[in-house]
């Protein structure tokens, strides 16, 4: 790590600042209730939602070929057909997708303590939101959680040539803020994108949010720091800056 103080912090969005996984689970529970009460599905309702969850986790989205709404409606259509048999039911798939999506967005909120942390941090350093994913999906989340005003800049991977962990998107972020990679810290919950990307770009430090105490694979990228909550970040940044002061 270089001997300059931290000048900028890049934050991931999903499961770092907002509980995307929890919001998705709530969306699935609403769909299960819908399928059971309106369409009289029994245990098939949970099977369908489990299948969709697997499809989402394996999703490969290419914006040139399809739109995210069509792709995700197809996940539901396939899951329903795989579970119930018979002909495809696009109308029901659309109903399930829209209920899941709207419930999920309703529960994507910035906690008050996270807002307070960002507000305080921004008095000291530049803040940038750096999120991978489809442009439409991520912009809807950013709007739903009303987080844009807490940042000096927002960068969505789906709007760039390359996403995290490619160094180019990190250099683009540095240029936006007028800082060098050695001035910046990346904070995120995903080793393969957030942490690997920060390492690839030569950032001052990478901070892995490991909420559930996951033991990483031996082959995983190694972060400079590990915290269990994003709220631990201000104290960590102070300690990084203290090391710089002591070194100089």
Structure description:
The protein has 248 residues and is of the alpha/beta class. The chain has 2 domains: 8-19 and 109-242, HAD superfamily/HAD-like (Rossmann fold), CATH 3.40.50; 21-107, Haloacid dehalogenase hydrolase-like domain (Four Helix Bundle (Hemerythrin (Met), subunit A), Up-down Bundle), CATH 1.20.120.710. The protein is 49% helix and 11% strand. It has 9 helices and 6 strands, in the order βαααααβαβαβαββα. Strands 3-2-1-4-5-6 form a 6-stranded parallel sheet, with helices on both faces. Helix 6 links the parallel strand 2 (126-131) and strand 3. It is elongated, with a radius of gyration of 20 Å. The two termini are 13 Å apart. The mean pLDDT is 95.
By oligomeric state, this entry counts as single chain
The portion of residues assigned to helices is 40-55%
Assigned CATH class of the largest domain: Alpha Beta
- Apparent shape: elongated
Instruction: Please outline the major beta sheet.
Output: 6 strands, parallel
Give a brief description.
Pfam families: Hydrolase. With 248 residues, the protein is α/β, with parallel strands linked by helices.
How are the secondary structure elements laid out?
Elements: E1 8-11, H1 20-37, H2 44-57, H3 68-84, H4 90-106, H5 112-121, E2 126-131, H6 135-144, E3 153-156, H7 167-177, E4 184-188, H8 191-200, E5 205-209, E6 225-227, H9 233-247
Parallel strand pairs: 1-2, 1-4, 2-3, 4-5, 5-6
Key terms:
248 residues; 6-stranded parallel sheet; hydrolase; 2 domains; 9 helices; alpha/beta; 11% strand; elongated; Four Helix Bundle (Hemerythrin (Met), subunit A); Rossmann fold; carbohydrate metabolism
